[in-house]
Task: structure prediction
Amino acid sequence: MSDAPTTVAQMINDKLVDALAPVHLDIINESNNHNVPANSETHFKVVVVSDGFADQSLVQRHRSINKLLSDELTGPVHALSLHTHTAQEWADKGGVVPASPPCRGGSAR
Result:
């Protein structure tokens, strides 16, 4: 057992794996693209591929993830970009998600 503190990314990972059993999961910390202190965990892009999303609208998928991550969203996470797909949708997209736009907040304006 490790004494290392659990990172926000690891907490997100654990909750999504437990609830959705994804066939693909990427949790990308994009905090370094924003006006936050070094080593922050405040801005994430999450790519979740799960057949549990079958027959769910995009809004339903996002709401379910927002509910799972409610503690993180009311705490350390300031921004969460979600890309939710079934395995077939992911294959149809060639396993690619769009790049995140540059930050326009804070001193970057």
